[in-house]
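@here heads up, posting the sequence + SMILES for the 2-acetamido-2-deoxy-beta-D-glucopyranose run so it's all in one place. Ping me if the SMILES looks off, I pulled it from an old spreadsheet.
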Amino acid sequence: MASKLTPKLITWLILPSCLLMFFYSTLLPLYTTRSPQSPTKIPLLPPEPCNLFRGQWVLDPSRKPMYDSTCPFHRNAWNCIKNQRENMGRINSWKWVPENCDLDRVDPAGFLNLMRNKNIGFVGDSLNENFLVSFLCTLRVADEGAKKWKRKGAWRGAYFPKFNVTVAYHRAVLLAKYEWQTKWPELSGQDGVKGIYRVDIDVPADDWANIADFYSVLVFNTGHWWGYDKFPKETPLVFFKGGQPIHPPLEMLDGEFQQELYMVAHIDKVFPKNVHKFWRLQSPRHFHGGEWNQNGSCLFDEPLKEYQLDMWFDPNKNRVNREARKLNHVIEEALKGTSIRTLDVTHMSEFRADAHPAIWLGKKDAVAVWGQDCMHWCLPGVPDTWVDILTQLISYNLEMG
Ligand SMILES: *[C@@H]1O[C@H](CO)[C@@H](O)[C@H](O)[C@H]1NC(C)=O
Ligand SMILES: *[C@@H]1O[C@H](CO)[C@@H](O)[C@H](O)[C@H]1NC(C)=O
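bot reply: prediction finished. Complex structure tokens:
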């Protein structure tokens, strides 16, 4: 009798626990994590479901940025307070409110304490640099002795001596290795072609080739360079694999998908299991009335309304800024089944047409030469909310081991 009952008993005992653990591991990261000061409040069952990436911006006039124009890690073109961008007070009065919970602001000291003796790396294009600057200026609130740091191939970063924490950015705009090449036999005879950008889809760029044992947390992104305006007909992208050009040549989006698959597999393989890996999804652009080089503009006073978002960003509507959602599909496809988690800032940022540097670039003639900047974000600004979310996800992951 007992021998018959035991397997059943085990099933009844173990199955619910497994299910519970499964729900915890899959759903909990999306809930607001409790502050470490109140461990007794950790409930036995998951609280109400909460998705930090869905919600709305609510005006909160008491809200103030955590840093100002004097943060030494600013990049001039994004230092909107210094550049006297209009509306900065209002831009930073909007608070992101997820659908079913509150998003707490990061506690810089608490977070750095949790990260003690650990390092955080960003790898990707200038939108990840934009993110990094927000992160550094926020964390510096807890350690004003923060020093510039630039080693191991990093483009820029900071060391926080009170906590022995380094946070840095490795510039690798396509993640894969790419280089300008003037000699390319297949080009002879083609009108106007000056050379090619060779992309080795299976080789990571040197800038982040040797960081595997340094960072405990990594945040990747790519995508903003995958545009036809960056790689026009005269200087096309040519995709290589195993050192040989791929035949037939890949279209840009196919090439991007292929390289993403390789980079994702590489990241999965090279970084140890205990390294927390995130992939930040696309940051939307807000060029209105034309591309960046066609007088595209983003002089908005208010965030967009929810009903306007599809009009702006639905790829089928064929508008100027349609690429973000399209690229997200490609990236999400590539990330399926991997240990890399997505940091989906796209939806929340789609609203914020009002929060780019626009014409306030801090340099005479910059607008005449480059057009408005409706791609990067003013700092302080929207990426500060990305920081609130990222730090919450990191804290949760570290506490769970
Ligand atoms: C600082 O952190 C590094 C890891 O990033 C560690 O190797 C080193 O021992 C730490 N230094 C101190 C003084 O704890
Ligand atoms: C941009 O605006 C300037 C000044 O109004 C105008 O001369 C130029 O033709 C415009 N360019 C485009 C591409 O629309």
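MO: The longest helix spans residues 2-27.
MO: One more: Residues 117, 119, 164 surround 2-acetamido-2-deoxy-beta-D-glucopyranose (ligand 1) (CB under 6 Å).
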